[in-house]
Write a structure and sequence with these properties.
The protein is α+β, with helices and mostly antiparallel strands and 227 residues long. It is 48% helix and 18% strand. The strands form 2 sheets. Strands 2-4-5-7-6 form a 5-stranded mixed β-sheet, covered by helices on one side. The protein has a two-stranded antiparallel ribbon with strand order 1-3. The longest helix is centred in the first third of the chain and has 31 residues. InterPro entries: ChpT_C, HATPase_C_sf. It comes from Glycocaulis albus. This is Histidine phosphotransferase.
Length: 227
């Protein structure tokens, strides 16, 4: 279980780092554990008949771990040291690899050729949240547009049977902690909202029956002019 840490609306830098690391480690446990289990089978001389299955498990676990690390490198991190925009075809590749085994289908309707890194970071986090919203399957539709001035509009819709979102996540997107504070899961919507707010924007989520819609706006140019 990912334990809560702070009930303050603004977690400290150390709390933010710790909770994001907890989120990452929680998702890496499964593929890494699969690798360990498969290696144990290969080391067992009495399990020769399971060798092919073990090798396939290693291949699957390694691919999953690689996809998660690539995705999180940009979703939580800098995604490289160079500034500038990220090609949306690369974002699509990351998302398809990350959620290849997920139940909902990913529907990519992105118009922008590229997104600035902050917008790309927000988009990847919202796609991740949306996939989690529909564990029984359905669709996650991704839309994004960008202006020449660097402003971005993102829209991600999760639709499917029993689609739901924790109300604490809606609050976290707006930078408000729930009664139990932030934990390794609610820190992700908080982080997505934080990145948007730091770049002159906001993120909102709207829940309907079997449908969750995320809308994010980033306006770094307007923020710079107002500063």
């Amino acid at each position: 279980m990912l334990a809560p840490m702070s009930t303050q609306n603004t977690p400290s830098a150390s709390e933010l780092a710790a909770l994001l690391c907890a989120r990452l480690c929680h998702d890496l446990v499964s593929p890494v554990s699969a690798l360990g289990a498969a290696l144990s089978v290969l080391d067992d001389e009495n399990a020769a008949d399971m060798r092919d299955d073990a090798i396939e498990l290693i291949r699957t676990g390694a691919n999953q771990a690689h996809a998660k690390l690539e995705y999180v490198r940009l979703a939580f991190g800098a995604g490289g040291s160079r500034p500038g925009s990220i090609d949306t075809s690369e974002l699509k590749r990351l998302a398809e690899a990350m959620f290849a085994s997920a139940k909902p289908d990913l529907v990519w309707k992105v118009q922008a050729a590229g997104l600035d890194k902050p917008a790309a970071r927000v988009l990847l986090n919202l796609v991740w949240l949306a996939v989690d919203n529909v564990p029984r399957g359905g669709t996650v539709t991704v839309e994004a547009s960008a202006s020449e001035g660097g402003d971005s509009r993102l829209r991600v819709v999760a639709a499917g049977p029993r689609a739901r979102i924790d109300p604490a996540y809606i609050e976290a997107l707006a930078g408000r902690a729930g009664e139990d504070g932030y934990d390794g899961r609610s820190i992700q919507p908080y982080y997505a909202g934080l990145v948007a707010r730091e770049h002159g924007g906001r993120v909102e989520a709207h829940a309907e029956e079997e449908r969750i819609e995320y809308i994010a706006l980033l306006a770094p140019q307007a923020k710079a002019q107002a500063a």
